[in-house]
Amino acid sequence: xxxxxxxxxxxxxxIGAGVVETFNRNLNLMEQKVGAKIKLKRIVxxxxxxxxxxxxxxxxxxxxxxxxxxxxxxxxxxELIGGYEPAKTFILKAMGHGKHVVTANKALLAKHWEEIxxxxxxxxxxxxxxxxxxxxxxLLEPLNxxxxxxxxxxxxxxxxxxxxxxxxxxxxxGLDFDEVLKEAQDKGYAEQDPTFDIEGxxxxxxxxxxxxxxxxxxxxQDKFHVEGISKIKQEDIExxxxxxxxxxxxxxxxxxxxxxxxxxxxxxxxxSDHLIASVNGVFNGVYLIGDIVGPVxxxxxxxxxxxTASAVVGDCLDIxxxxxxxxxxxxxxxxxxxxxxxxxxCSKYYMRLTVLDKPGVLHAISGILSRYDISLESxxxxxxxxxxxxxxxxxxxEALEKNIRSAVKEIDELDLVKEAxxxxxVLED
Amino acid sequence: xxxxxxxxxxxxxxIGAGVVETFNRNLNLMEQKVGAKIKLKRIVxxxxxxxxxxxxxxxxxxxxxxxxxxxxxxxxxxELIGGYEPAKTFILKAMGHGKHVVTANKALLAKHWEEIxxxxxxxxxxxxxxxxxxxxxxLLEPLNxxxxxxxxxxxxxxxxxxxxxxxxxxxxxGLDFDEVLKEAQDKGYAEQDPTFDIEGxxxxxxxxxxxxxxxxxxxxQDKFHVEGISKIKQEDIExxxxxxxxxxxxxxxxxxxxxxxxxxxxxxxxxSDHLIASVNGVFNGVYLIGDIVGPVxxxxxxxxxxxTASAVVGDCLDIxxxxxxxxxxxxxxxxxxxxxxxxxxCSKYYMRLTVLDKPGVLHAISGILSRYDISLESxxxxxxxxxxxxxxxxxxxEALEKNIRSAVKEIDELDLVKEAxxxxxVLED
Lengths: 429, 429
Description:
Two copies of one chain form a homodimer. Chain A has 429 residues and is of the alpha/beta class.
């Protein structure tokens, strides 16, 4: 136990300002928790002039990274610059100097997990990253520690607030994807280039981290299926909600099926009665199933200045309370023998076909489906519009994804089919 | 770090059998997590003959408590006999022998918190009790550690599965309280004497523990308002759901209002859009608001053999990973200066009055309410039945509880009022 813990912060952006504000507001609470003095000794950023709207002692600010890396008094380095470089170099150097590291950098962890973990272990320092998934939600530590008596069977989470906001608005207000995206951009909930969020890449990076913790397995991002929400139309949302009693959510899924690990990110139909269907707006929620505990869910703000700062500072306090704790993330001897190819998963599917409203069209489609061993739970053509384009909605029974893909490919080659068929996987508990 | 950790289990009931089963199934996983051997060295119970349905080495069983208390090799004692005595004596003695303690005993903690904590600290041992509130849900540690950078502003939770099951069934199936209670008893979800669960006493004990962790304040059970669900009728549920878009939940509430702490257990109206309204059946959910993080919720199985065992064993692993951690529960320097009397709270209220359907009845009632400064948001008499008893449903604007109580007392003295008026507090975020 030390008398004082010194913290260095690299990156004085939005989250960095949140960390400073947390220190400003709650330092007393934090010091009492740890039983020692805590000092935010140095903040390094390229820009130390711009006012971040939080009170900060000018003498703490520096543009020289070595003021943190080479200061022997600094125990913990918070990295909040994000991205791969120079974040990675700074983190590895900090570890080389014997400093513990707290980061919210999901991209870096998802890409360089093994190197970062090894460097931490080689230097006997801790690496904590609660803020990297689910923002302020207490999530990674509960999964990794509180549930350590469990083999995790399944994780599925809503871990991107932008995508969830868009799907929620489409559902609640009957608006189209483009309209909602524009509104989200105006409100600052979506970036000007929203690809990273709406196409599932952000979710995929976070899922890599969840998969390490839940299954002790590191999976590279190009090794699993990632699909976004941009093809979802208002008519999908409406049909799924009103006719099926389901919701569409962009889910990160990682689960064991027959000894193989399924890792996938895609829009998913889930029963509206399922608690995760009630995770709305920019909020995040992660639903876990352990073999001993059964299902648990953690919910909260998945992003934002102050929520993310809460997790970052929580990690700092945890390190101060136990600097010796080894970095054991995920079960060591994983049950996972293989990552399942997306083509080998089994699921029910929702499909929206856009066809010419003519006699025989359904017969042609059902013929193809049956040849691929796909049976139907329901078929629904809600509009009649003889000779014009209409949507047909199908729900299949459990089918193999590779059969679905082949069938959809054949279906889309039919003259009567006027638009690429959309298919969405259904998740049942 | 030791090579082997020995655990002693006191109490081989349902949860105890769950702990044994967890050791049987997942010992390998647990040992890898901790990096040492783990042994369930001794199980003590008065009855060591009855088959608990789990595999257990006969040599591990004993009826002599001293086989645990006086065995110097045992590092951690799990207490699962419940109740006050002999549980308390055993726990204090175990601590006196330098053993760390894990317990799920909410009754004991709620009553003797200060003595137990002091004894643990005097003996430099840890006391862990994750399973005492919310069963298997990772809840207390996240609140106490992960959110340690936050001043907690508000906690409200559904932490009794029996009461929640009954309210859920009444809501979903339109049944009356007595019918559902009987069904719950038949299914084993409710005790033959259900008082402890349905009148809120179990919830109150758990709330005491949550209040320690959230606000650093110990409140005795007879110092706060505790009210159960037995007066709720199907007509309340129905009106609240269909006309108001609200749900009734038995909530444990602990929150700071104007520097004073409100601690209360009672049925509560909460908007059906609120995530906690989606916590159904025997499940538990606790919603927390921190000043930095904002709102978070943890959800899962609040009771049961295996879920509770998951939390108990999780505590054991946590102790093995850090035997030196001091017992710091809740903020040290609490913001709380005073516990607010229930009469001083401010709330909206739902009221169900049973009156004779006669001209003038509403005039009489509204006169009383207005004299007590209570204004109405809505009044609803859905049935006409001239000269007979009918229910009237009222929603008030924000009012002081003491005024509500005085008004209800006067109203219930009117000749036209035929049954004690029910009032239920409304919780708004």
